[in-house]
Design a protein that fits this description.
This is Transcriptional regulator, RpiR family. InterPro entries: Homeodomain-like_sf (IPR009057), HTH_RpiR (IPR000281), RpiR-like (IPR047640), WH-like_DNA-bd_sf (IPR036388). With 110 residues, the chain is mostly helical. The protein has a domain at 9-83: Arc Repressor Mutant, subunit A (Orthogonal Bundle), CATH 1.10.10.10. 75% of the residues lie in helices and 0% in strands. Helix 2 (22-33) crosses helix 4 (43-50) and helix 4 crosses helix 5. The radius of gyration is 20 Å and the shape is globular.
Length: 110
């Protein structure tokens, strides 16, 4: 079985950005700047927010490797969930490290 790692939506947008037309770049910019909002939007809402047509939204999604807007939203939501699962461990690790350093500094002074 092949272990194929999927490219994140944000990375896909960056990789195809220079090939996009101006209206498509507005959509891409909006997605990049508001990824948390886009997950909850409809095609029409994104079109209004980015001043583009529904068809432009779908074209951007396809140019970035997704089957359509719904697929883009699913991938973005999954990526958000995956990163949220990883982040608490980093925060806990940093907090424990900080406490350990403070503990060592305090005990070295005494």
């Amino acid at each position: 079985m092949e272990n194929k790692k999927e490219i994140k939506v944000i990375d896909q947008i960056f990789s195809c950005y220079n090939e996009l037309f101006d209206a498509e770049k507005r959509v891409a910019d909006y997605i990049l700047e508001n990824s948390d909002k886009v997950i909850e939007m409809t095609v029409s809402e994104l079109a209004d927010a980015s001043e583009a047509s529904n068809a432009t939204i779908v074209r951007v999604c396809k140019k970035c490797g997704c089957k359509g807007f719904h697929h883009l939203k699913i991938k973005m939501a999954k990526e958000t969930t995956d990163s949220e699962k990883k982040y608490p461990m980093i925060l806990i690790s940093m907090t424990l490290s900080s406490h350990f350093i403070i503990f060592c500094q305090t005990n070295m002074k005494n």
